[in-house]
Amino acid sequence: MGGGVLQGIFQNPLVDPYVLGISSGASLGAVFAILGGVYLGYFTVPLFAFGGALLSAFLVFYLGKIGKRFPLEILLLAGVGVGFFFSALVSLGMFLAGEDLHQLVFWTMGGFWNSSWREVKMVLPFLVVGVPILLSFFRELNAFLLGEKVAESMGVEVEKVKKWLLFLVSLLIASAVAVSGVIGFVGLVVPHLVRLLGTRDHRYLLPFSFLLGGGVLLWADTLARSILSPIELPVGIITNLLGAPFFIYLLRARKRNR
Amino acid sequence: MKKYLEVENLSFSYAQRKILDKLTFGVDKGELVGVVGPNGAGKSTLLYLLAGLITPQEGEIVLGGKKAKNLSRRRWSKKVAMVFQEIPPDLEIPSRELVAMGRFPHLGRWQREGESDKEKIAWAMEVTSTSRFSDRMFSELSGGEKQRVMIARALAQEPELLLLDEPTSHLDILHQLEIMEILLQLRRGGVAIVAVFHDLNLVSQFCDKSLLLKEGHLLSFGKVEEVMKAEEVEKLLQVEFLETIHPFSLRPFFMPLQKINNNPSRGRVHLICGGGSGSRFMRELLEAGFSLSLGVVNQLDSDEELAKKLGIPIVQEKPFSPFSSSVVEEAYQLAKKADFIVIVPTYWGRGNLPNLDLAERLVKEGKVVLILEEALNPRFDYAEGKAQEKLKKIIEEGGRVVEDLSTYFSSS
């Protein structure tokens, strides 16, 4: 769903939740927690990841802001820049990790192998508050389809709406990444799957992306657990393996349509 | 009387450059105002200001007695809707849903579309004749249909003021007229409309008032019949126009004239023509590098109007009158200065026969007189064969019959 919202804001079908630098920020947070040897109870790594994700998101907003506005292309570039910078720090951390390396690598691959209801409880408040509010923005997101100027002429306070949506999405994604690690391609591909099912109306696109996203992950996780059973693969490997070819297919299909 | 829309001293600059300078005008409900001006005159900027998409540095926009700058975005959009020049890229959305988006300012965040919203959407599609493809995807529609859907979307906002930025620019003439019909219908319904057009004649035929904008200045604003004069329009667009009255609408109608090269490198031609028969030769000869003179022709003759416009010296007689001897004498004096006399295919009646006497006199004096072969066709003679006789006489005296002028001049 985060992907659906961001693709709506940016009017760019190739945007996914990680363009705001959130994934690399979360990884960096996890690196800190694991290497720093900090231990604040069960949620240490998720908490640090959450902090890292928010830090990177706000850094991107800060860098992408010009006056009172958030020009989309600047925001995208800021996201890419911050992402690379944080990734470099993560690599540096890994290089120096020594014994903790495999824990780090596992985290960055993303997975649910130690998920439990405790993780669900951590994410739940964000979902309960964030999801309905995001869904309520379907009219604004539909208006963005016609372009920002048209949306504004129809009464949408474009800059304000963008700010709110980016903030909410960052919060939701940060909470999700914090407990699962980086699971690629789901946020990018799922909204396209919903569009292939035949709607571009955000009234349906958002809730369906939310549900289908969960469904796809469940399915991918099942595959991850059974394919090399009893070894459980990180689910991020599965989503990347299946998502990347699908993504390329989408790109080429779009080109052919032109 | 205050108008619905009052614009006072409106100025807008962008990056130190003044785009609009102190505009003041008013538009009433039920008025259709056409904005005309060359590229970069600030026409779109004016619409953006009226829609509240950009903020003026100076001046005031008043909508129905309320200062617009105090309106929230949502309330502004309830009063003013805009149709943009660009049609959005191919959207896989049913047309009806696209029109429904226009209800945005009337709906709360958690509110669903109610009966009255549905009625307004149906009305907007009815007015624009888009109801019959309400379920078709926007991307599948033709250019004209897309534009009408975009207008319907704006109408769903129930605007009191409708702004349109070149709504006809990508459309063929049939679809342009469809759009104008829609605007006239809305105007009768009491909507104030301000629209930018590239086509002068759409403005002169359909709009109540016109606003001529040049380099950010208001050149003039008022009733079309009063404001749209050839000199004014020429000043605005830097193109020469031939102005006539449209025979049906009785409104001014403008035809652009080509820039002409007025240096006579190849000598001077005196044309004997009338009733529009000379127009095509005027152009041909001017383009070939000749200078021209004309006469005698009657006033209000289309040859006379065109020649005047082109700055060609002419000798004219009162409308619908036979040529008097003094006028013919005047034409003789003018024609004597020419290197060639050309008689073009034109109708002869008792009134204009003296033109042929004139030619005969000149050919006897040794002037080169050229007669286009087509002019000898007896069907042109409404003077009981007298024109035929006179033409024959001219040929006997040394007048040359030519098939067409370009062949003659290129061989001589």
Brief sketch in words of this structure:
The complex is a heterodimer of chains A (about 260) and B (about 400). Chain A contains 12 helices and no strands.
Tell me what you see in this structure.
The complex is a heterodimer of chains A (258) and B (412). With 258 residues, chain A is an all-alpha fold. Helix content of chain A is 74%, strand content 0%. Chain A starts with a helix and ends with a helix. The model of chain A has no long low-confidence stretch (mean pLDDT 80). In chain B, strands 6-7-8-3-9-10 form a six-stranded mixed β-sheet, with helices on both faces. A six-stranded parallel β-sheet of chain B has the order 15-14-13-16-17-18, with helices on both faces. In chain B, helix 13 runs parallel beside helix 14 (386-396).
DSSP, total strands of chain A: 0
Oligomeric state of the chains present here? heterodimer
Mean pLDDT across the residues of chain B is 89
**Ends apart, CA distance between termini of chain A:** 27 Å
The amount of beta strand of chain B, in percent, is 15-25%
Which chain pair has the greatest contact? A-B, 19 and 28 residues
